[in-house]
Amino acid sequence: MVRQVEAAISDHPAVINVFAFAGDGGLDTGGPGQQTPQDTVGQVQFELIPWEDRPTARERWFFDLLERDVTAPAFDGNFVIGELNERLAVLAGFEAEILSLKKGPASGKAVHLRLKGGDRDALAAATRMARARFDETPGLVLIEDTLPLPGIDWQINVDVQKAGRFGADVATVGAMVQLVTRGILLDTMRVDSSDEEIEIRVRLPRKDRVLSTLDSLKVRTRDGLVPLSNFITREPVAKLAKISRIDQERYYDVKADVATGLSKVVTDGATGAQTRLAIVQAIPEGAVATGPVLKTPKGGQFTLVSLIGATSLNEVQDALSTDAARITPINPNERIALLSDWLNKKPFAPSVTWEWTGDQEEQAESGAFLSKAFAGALGLMFIILLAQFNSFYNSVLVLLAVVLSTTGVLIGMMVMQQPFSIIMTGTGIVALAGIVVNNNIVLIDTYQEYSRYMPRIEAIVRTAEARIRPVLLTTITTMAGLAPMMFGLSLDFIGGGYSIDSPTSLWWKQL
User: Fold this and answer.
1) Is the separation of the CB atoms in 110 and 221 below 8 Å?
2) Given this model, what pLDDT does residue 104 score?
3) What is the percent of the chain where pLDDT is above 70?
């Protein structure tokens, strides 16, 4: 099985190295946020062609006014993973899940639902119900849950009344059972070659460590040796695996990722309500479509993934051809909102509660931290400005300009078609406050000086004339210095040359 996967991956032209491991071992690809499923039978880890060595292709850029070299779509990491998933899907007998290497703190899957409750049966039923809903939701891939794997455990029941009649107690019976399982702990010892204590246990020989041995074991009582089978019974029960708790409550997780490149086609119904027509996937330039091809008036090509609310493929194509439909990208937040609508209908037992965790939880924590940092920065600025201007009005005026500057940030991100990153974009907004405050301090200080001996309007005009040069120089030099970061331009000062949108530059582009 592992060799089949290894052969399928190594045949891909974008793969240069492959490492295969049996079981859940392998190279460490992240921290606790990136855990392998419980039923893992093997891992195959592979390395793609380095980014700088991949073939390139020309594409239109900056509102189709310029051209630039980019990585060929067939060698893009996400596209390669999609092709490998298609190859592995045709292999029978197992399910494959491909995870990209985390360059930093490991994180869980994008859609991570946690169900909590004290009733184990109700919690398991709710988890199976949520898993079924995840399976039915288009756009979710690599779905898994933390329910125990199918199997049985043997539960040993002791009839206390019968044991008492034979003169045996539960502690003695438990010690005899331990002889068959993990052994009876006698003592601990320390050795020079270990920093931890070593346990000393007494166990039966290996050939006798089977459940059937319990039928022949005898326990010593005041009346002599008595067979254990007189007062113990074995009962097969569902496998428990492990018990996970948080805040003293048992929980199970249902996790999934969101497929890349998916969009939903939405139209306005007769009553104005939105009606989902279908879920489609963009076809990269040069790629071969795997399903029906849908075209938009602007030349975009999509392939149909699933119909939702539409009666036929022609209905979706007609909507796209007449611009009557809107193509909205599908992302984790959108899928979480869709699933939350279902969860808010309370489909589970009253004892089961739910919450979104994983990336959603980390995003909320990051947003809360950034909000506190921004408020703290504004507070410190206000104290310094108040000490310098000795005026509440001027201090508030400067801080108001900081808040209004975020409008320019959002417009700039819309023009550059960049997503809003809570950490990187938020940090950039806080850093931008320093430039905005500096310009406003220069303007207000000069205005206060002129307003002492000339009319207000004239003082405003003279201030703008006198300070336009330092304000523009500060702004333009900052923009020029950050332009390479904004456009993803990396310069090689040693070897010469440049690259655009390299993996390193993408880290800083949103900042």
Assistant:
1) no
2) 46
3) 92
